[in-house]
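pls design
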């Protein structure tokens, strides 16, 4: 009895986060109009999934179901927002389940279509590049209220209905096993059922430096780092593709974790 009491205390480590069995998950960070990088990264992802399927076949296992999760911010800053959305809509990766989340830049674009007063903020954060990609030109800053209203009408006319439906139908979050995928992050201490879409699209303060257990490993974009930012409670994969040429994906299978990048 005494010997039992005197045994050294052993800390029991929690198992690492994992995605469900039979799922091969790829999360892609902020694209920001760089359809060229998206094409290259998708080829890398396709080859990676094919290698996983061959390995499963060699071991007599069913091939895992590949899933690609886009974390939002398809538009603004880069020159080809229209082409990036067209690629996602018209040429999804064959055989992949595709999930599309809403970023704060899609939020700004949609809000501008309903209320031109946000236009100055949106244009200053890369919305001018999106206008150009949809052929909305011949304007100069600064714009008065009438000029913003004119831009709003012209953009609404230029947006293909399928693109607008895509933007309006974007999800705010997605779960895969022990992982939660959002664009920006979550508010620490807030129950999942009470999380606000605004936080999931916009949050930085209060989330990035938090050490709180969010209940799941949070995978997010929104906040640029030169390399993927791995923390005990979150993984950031926005590597500033529009400026760096580095578009990053997180690859998850079971409890394993890898990064793919252009």
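designed seq:
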């Amino acid at each position: 009895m005494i010997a039992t009491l005197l045994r050294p205390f052993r800390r029991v480590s929690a198992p690492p986060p994992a995605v469900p069995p039979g799922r091969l998950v790829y999360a892609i960070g902020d694209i920001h109009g760089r359809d060229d990088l998206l094409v290259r990264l998708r080829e890398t992802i396709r080859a990676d999934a094919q290698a996983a399927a061959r390995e499963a076949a060699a071991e007599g296992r069913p091939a895992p179901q590949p899933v690609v999760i886009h974390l939002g911010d398809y538009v603004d800053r880069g020159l080809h927002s229209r082409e990036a959305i067209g690629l996602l809509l018209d040429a999804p990766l064959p055989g992949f389940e595709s999930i599309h989340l809403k970023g704060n830049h899609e939020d700004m674009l949609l809000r501008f279509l309903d209320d031109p007063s946000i236009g100055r903020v949106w244009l200053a954060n890369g919305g001018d590049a999106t206008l150009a990609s949809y052929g909305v030109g011949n304007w100069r800053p600064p714009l008065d209220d009438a000029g913003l209203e004119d831009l709003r009408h012209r953009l609404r006319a230029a947006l293909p209905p399928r693109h607008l439906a895509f933007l309006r139908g974007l999800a705010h979050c997605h779960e895969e096993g022990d992982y939660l995928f959002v664009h920006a992050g979550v508010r620490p201490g807030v129950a999942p059922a009470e999380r606000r879409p605004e936080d999931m699209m916009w949050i930085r303060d209060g989330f990035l430096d938090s050490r709180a257990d969010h209940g799941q490993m949070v995978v997010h974009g929104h906040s640029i780092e030169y390399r993927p930012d791995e923390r005990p409670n979150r993984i950031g994969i926005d590597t500033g593709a529009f400026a760096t040429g580095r578009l990053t994906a997180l690859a998850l299978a079971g409890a394993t974790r890898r990064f793919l990048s252009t």
